[in-house]
Amino acid sequence: MLSLVRECAARVLDAEELIAPDMTFREYGFDSAASERLRDEIAECINLRLLASIAFDHPTPRELAQHLTVVVNGALPRGFEQIYRQLCRKNPGAAEEMVRAASVLRPVFTEAETIPPRTIKLASGPGPLAVMCFSSMLPMTTPAKFTEFAEAFAGFADVHGIAHPGFAEGQRVPADVDALVAAHIATVTELVKDRPYVLCGYSSGGWIAHLIAERLGAGSAAVRRGLKGLVLLDSSWPSTRFAPGKAGKALAASVRREEARGIDEAGMTRLTAMGAYLRLLDGWAPAQVGIPVLHVAAEVHGATWQLPHVAATTPGGHLTMLPAAGHVVVAWLRDLEARIGSGGG
Hints:
Elements: H1 2-13, H2 32-46, H3 54-57, H4 61-74, H5 80-90, H6 92-103, E1 108-109, E2 119-123, E3 130-134, H7 147-150, E4 159-162, E5 173-174, H8 177-192, E6 197-202, H9 205-214, H10 221-226, E7 227-233, H11 246-260, H12 268-280, E8 293-298, E9 310-314, H13 322-341
Parallel strand pairs: 1-5, 3-4, 3-6, 6-7, 7-8, 8-9
Antiparallel strand pairs: 2-4
C-alpha cells in the first residue's frame, strides 16, 4: 500500500522519482487540487470511495498507507462482482453458488430457437480433417485461447474456435443441455459441410466437446458421419455435479490470475454465463462415444480421463501446455488419417 501511495503521488506530481515515505504531501507542494487528484488516483486503484481531504488528514505517504490498509481490510464489497471476488478469496464454494444462483435471471434460448455461437478461424490447411475447438467455461476464456495451439496446424488443417453462447453482451444463455448442443451442432454443421472433422476441447471445454459427440444424432447425417475423433486437452473427469469443491477452487485460481494481469472485472454477463453452464451440466456423466478419443494431459499435475482413450502427455502445466499440445494432436491426426484412408478406423 505504501508503494501504491508513493506511485500515485508521483503521477500527480508528474515526477520520475517516488516521494519519501515520511515527508508530508505539503512539503512536496500538494494543494487542494493536487490532493483531490491523489485521492482520485488511489480510489481508482483500490476501487473504494475516499474523502477529498484524505491527504491532509493523513499527511505523509506512510500514514496514509497505514490508514488505507485498515480501510481496505475492513471495507464491505460494493456490487455483485466485488462480492464474488472477495468470496473467491475467502469461501470459493460460496462464490460458485453465487454465480449459479444469479444465472437463473438470464434470458434463455431453447432448442427450437437455436442461436449459432460466434466462431474464429485459427489455422488453414488442406485437411482432410478439420478441427473444431471449444474453450473452457471460465469467464475470461475465449476461443482465442487456442491461437498458439493452432500454430501447429498451419498448412495442415483448418482449425476453428467456437465460442459458447451467452458469454457475449446481448446474448442469451441456453435453456438446457439440448439447447446448448443444438447451438453448437448448428455451428459445426455450417463450418464442416460434408468434410470429416474432429471435436477438441480444452479443460472444461472438453466436457462440452464430449457432450456434443454423444448427441450428434441431432445433426445431419453428413455431420454424424463426418465426426472421426474427439480430442480432450487436460480435461478432468467430471462428477455428477462438476467436481464439488474443485469448481470453487478453479474460480479462485482464475480470479488470482486475472488480478495478476490487472483485470478486476469480468462483468455480470460472463460470470452468470459460467454459472448457467455449471447448472446445465449438473448430473451429466460422459458416456462412450464410439469414435477414437485422444486425451492430452499436462506433464505437470495433468488431468486424467476414465473412459477408453489414447493417452498422451505434453510439456508444461495446465495453463501453458497448449502450444506443445498442438504438435501432439497433429501427430495423432496424421495417424488417424492414415487409418481412415486404409479403412482401419
